[in-house]
Amino acid sequence: MNTWTLMKRILKQFRRDKRSMALMVAAPIFVLTLMWLVLDGDSKTLNVALVDVPDPFQETLEESELQLTSMSLAKAEEEIDDGSIDAFLQWKEQKPYLILEGSDPNTAGAIRNELQAAAAPNDPTKEMNVSFWHGSEDMELFDYIGPVLIGFFVFFFVFIVGGVSFLRERTQGTLERLLASPIKRSEVVFGYLGGFGLFTILQSILIAVFSIYVLDVYMTGSLMYVLLITFLLALTALSLGTLLSAFAKNEFQMIQFIPLVIVPQVFFSGLFPIEGLAVWLQAIGRVMPLTYGAEALRGIMLRDEGIAEFQLSMYILIGFVVLFTLLNIFALKRHRRL
């Protein structure tokens, strides 16, 4: 009897919580649909440039799955540097030289396999000289996804901890007491972001340093640039978490934002190839902060990019921080109109 009474109380509680009921149904369907759309897209096109390759061998390669384009050496070097092509094959001194972009070991391996299969049985690729524009022969899959994971974990934990902490300030009455004083809404927001921001700096440093020096994730760029991007990601997550906490009544409702806010960013962050997706799906990824953070981190750690290369991603992350901060200030009108 006591068990039945408890069951009825829980059922009534869920029935009153329309938001939780909706998320229990909608969130799994939303995530599964998103996963299907991302994983069911076309496979990545392998773009290979041909530089002074003899016509007979070029005709042989045309039977492969590679997307081949003939161009000059200078053009090939320019395009492999900006990521437009995945490799270029140069014929020099009667020998083939394969230069792989190299930041993605899966792509590099697929190109080599395609070349081997297309050139058999008269296989000049047995004597092919292989080099890497970025990365190295020893790179593994974790080295490629490592920068994305660094950005993801920084974003995820700061979002949860910052959002729940700010929510607790509100539910315990601390925020209401502050708003009852002459303090401005902007001062409240900047104060909380500044206080929590100090801890996000420490967390960003810890995650980045541990990943690079303990887990030995491939790193060829500047550690200071890595810390800069992780800190901007953390600030973005913190300002977004505090903003969404204004629409949550308790910690459980704050956690409910994960399938709607965090999970979609995982699919568009670079962990899964999105080049073969529909244009409208790729456009969704361009409005997600983690997309820009992951791109910048991957460029710094795998391709030794400087500020000139990742400055656009950096400015967009700063824009997200400013936008979410302004929305935070506006959201405090729900508690007090100054």
TrEMBL record:
Transmembrane regions: 21-39, 144-167, 188-213, 225-248, 260-281, 312-332
Domain ABC transmembrane type-2 positions: 108-335
UniProt entry tagged with the keyword Membrane: yes
Cell compartment(s), UniProt: Cell membrane
Molecular functions per Gene Ontology: ABC-type transporter activity
Superkingdom, natural source: Bacteria
Cellular component aspect of the GO annotation: plasma membrane
Family matches, as InterPro entries: ABC-2_transporter_component, ABC2_TM, ABC2_TM_bact-type
Record-stated family: Belongs to the ABC-2 integral membrane protein family.
PANTHER family noted in UniProt: MEMBRANE COMPONENT OF ABC TRANSPORTER YHHJ-RELATED, TRANSPORT PERMEASE PROTEIN
Protein name listed in UniProt: ABC-2 type transport system permease protein
Source organism (scientific name): Halobacillus alkaliphilus
